[in-house]
Amino acid sequence: MNVRRLIPTVTLAGAVTLGLVTLSACSSSDAATKKSGDKLAVTASFYPMQFLAERIGGDHVSVTTLTKPGVEPHDLELNPRQVAQLGEADVILYLKGIQPAVDEAITQSGVKNTVDATSLTTLEKHGTEVGHSHEDGHTDGHTAGESHSAGEEGSLDGKDPHIWLDPVKYAEVAKGVGASLEKADPDNSAAYRKNTDALVKQLGGLDTAFKQGLAGTTTKTFITTHAAFGYLAERYGLTQEAIAGLDPESEPSPARVKELETIAEHDKVGTVFFETLASDKTAKTIAADSGLKTDVLDPLEGITDKSKGDDYIEVMNSNLAALQKALGAK
Question: Could you tell me how far CA 157 lies from the centroid of its own chain?
């Protein structure tokens, strides 16, 4: 039987008093709360990992996330307390390549049960444009894989880490996470398996909704802040045109801005999407210059009070509705 560090209530309460740990039961905040009974301590790097841990772990886990609500995950820097917290985890769930500071800290944490989501599915290269070529047979913009930040290229060889925005790939990751929790806590394996099956079924329903909802649209091209939606575009036959590359903070060149204006006219694009955690300035400028509307397409890197939904499933359904409206779904 695998050994895990269970956290009795009395021990945890004492540690919290001393300010040594920061664990919260199924919460994205770093404020400690009292727990009842022994639970598997799971630390998630950011929201997509937190969601899986909470849904699959259920009542048997205590989930802490390193990325507070409203913080852009790519920019996260860990404080000493968070680094120490990593070492106290029974299981760490993360996605290599999204947060370099987290990747480094996990390597140094010494925690045996670390689960890298990128190892649970197949990664692909996506750039500013992903999906089908334009109707006249030529391709405007960059081809898939051309645009990515140096940091991400170094860690993932230019491959796109935004796998959670494809419900099918996210389901593959969910299965791997479920298996990892079973291994770390075999006494509750039946519960983890049941919760995994339920989540995978729900993600299958989401996949079906996207397939049906985006089957008949006036245009297949959408413009968004950064290239987070490559997997989603490829899955549902769309073309993503990103203002920036895989890094949401990178600035587009004047040539790229001009190119996007041309693409918008050519492909009858009516909406420029921005997101909740990154600056919307460039997106709104391009939209204003081209006479286009703006709307939110959420990359689901974190849930805040500005999110159009309370969890992954709700926000993804909001994304579907936004795409249907922007692309002219029939």
Answer: 19
